[in-house]
Amino acid sequence: MKLQIIxxxxxxRRHKRQAIGLLVENPNxxxxxxxxxxxxxxxxxxxxxxxxxxxxxxxxxxxxxxLPDYDGFVWEMHPLVVKKxxxxxxxxxxxxxxxxxxxxxxxxxxxxxxxxxMDSATSLSDVNLxxxxxxxxxxxxxxxxxxxxxxxxxxxxxxxxxxxxxGPGKPDILMGKRISKRRSQLATLTPVEGGKS
Length: 197
Ligand SMILES: CC(C)(COP(=O)(O)OP(=O)(O)OC[C@H]1O[C@@H](n2cnc3c(N)ncnc32)[C@H](O)[C@@H]1OP(=O)(O)O)[C@@H](O)C(=O)NCCC(=O)NCCS
What we know:
The chain is α+β, with helices and mostly antiparallel strands. It has helices at 13-24, 33-43, 91-105, 133-138, 147-153; strands at 3-7, 49-55, 60-69, 74-82, 110-116, 157-162, 172-178.
């Protein structure tokens, strides 16, 4: 599939409309077009990143956003969406890599993200996350298809959890990845991990 990953140009109204449409395809996350538009406008502000995957017909078929935090050492990846008809062809993975490259070039050491468990897809749902928190995260398993597995394949690891983020027993799973090859003074830090696992 012919595909380019380029920055979303806010002046390109067609691309912008398509990017908003991609979010609206997921009403559980973005229930209204105004909310989706606000998300895209936020990403087009200075110091943020919004990359889109454009197919051979110049249609936006995926987007990824990046927001700097912690003086730019840590970037949050949000949102990440691939058009439903184009999922399963490696576009999500390419968008993640492109954001990692862009954030890394801007000084990021780490990328973080949150992936919600709204429908008991993982072992972190419907349990007391204040008990044995670290153990539960370390031994986390998926019961059904969940984006957690996608991110794990991209080299991300669970680094925390926000209990009840989406209602009782429905957590937000925090994941992270070190993207910088710059070595820390701490010998205990794990090496930078590759893309596929
Ligand atoms: C999650 C999402 C971005 C993945 O994009 P994609 O282009 O379909 O993913 P890719 O084709 O690059 O997949 C890479 C690998 O992850 C796997 N994968 C993708 N989505 C997965 C999921 N939901 N659950 C489990 N594995 C998944 C693929 O099978 C593939 O595995 P392989 O390399 O062993 O073949 C896409 O499904 C999507 O837009 N979902 C709706 C929005 C969403 O959930 N965003 C994330 C919110 S936190």
